[in-house]
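Example 9 (inverse folding). The structure is encoded as follows.
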């Protein structure tokens, strides 16, 4: 459920390794997640490899990039 929310509200979605994608987004509960996934051939479907909460320096860097993008 939280992974779906983070993917729908992804602030960043960039290419990863070997055809995967890396999305960073926020859940409705306010948590920031990094989701690594592979797009599925089926429409509106993805295969999630892993997802974890952003904390510390990676979270600070993400927030900084978001602020700069808004300007």
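The amino acid assigned to each position is listed next.
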């Amino acid at each position: 459920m939280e992974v779906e929310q983070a993917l729908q509200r992804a602030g960043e979605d960039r290419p990863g390794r070997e055809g995967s994608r890396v999305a960073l987004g926020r859940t409705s509960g306010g948590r920031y997640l990094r989701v690594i996934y592979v797009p599925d051939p089926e429409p509106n479907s993805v295969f999630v490899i892993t997802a974890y909460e952003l904390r510390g320096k990676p979270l600070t860097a993400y927030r900084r990039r978001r602020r700069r993008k808004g300007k």
